[in-house]
């Protein structure tokens, strides 16, 4: 792996950590769903860097797109706020 | 708050165990192929003619697993429909789409469907295959369901597609049992590797899986949007 790819990966990994903290701390479920979509998208880029394009295309379409759609439809039924 | 900290600690412990287990199994960056993995990468192209070895493994070598996955997907979609009917969930109230959403969705959806069809037609040549292709098609229907007000499709058509694709998939497997004595075995000529019409039954199976997954996911999304009232 070249230098640029390593720097790119580190930035993406930091993005995953940030999204995880947002997902952990937020009370708004819609923001949680969107940050889990961000985690899936970054994971698919990682799969591409690690030369697994089949897994990458599946992760991008299932994890980032379709699951988010399902969760947003589900949030229409259960409401947006998490009550503790 | 205490609960959230507890979740976080459990997550870290879990991640630590998975990481240590994985690094014990596969040292990072080393090229080690043993047993069947070596066989697949060395003989896969010659055996079946598909240059994307992952699809050869998924459809032929481990074809029975794929049939199981399709069945699991079918069962979970059915369970979702039953749950929605049983709980008597009302129709979801989506916000009214704006003009930009409506027009953009109308022009984007056919292109996404075309891309999904490309992904599952070229499953034996390029990365992708039936599952991602079908999911991409379902994503375009998700776009239409969200952006077009009062968008509907005939439920009959989508159920017919699903049933037909599933039945034909099992039928192709049974033909393999008849001709080459193994369920989902390849009974066609493999052709020249790298061409669109090659790799025996892999493209046929992937077209069927693409249609099945696409129609299943679309009907699940439609059920979620309509709620349990209208069935």
TrEMBL record, chain A:
Its main location: membrane. Keywords: Cell membrane, Membrane, Transmembrane, Transmembrane helix. It comes from candidate division WOR-3 bacterium. Residues 14-79 form the MrpA C-terminal/MbhD domain. The keyword Metal-binding does not apply. GO terms for cellular component: plasma membrane. It is found in: Cell membrane. It holds the Pfam family MbhD. The chain crosses the membrane at residues 6-24, 29-50, 56-78. This is DUF4040 domain-containing protein. It is a multi-pass membrane protein. InterPro entries: MrpA_C/MbhD.
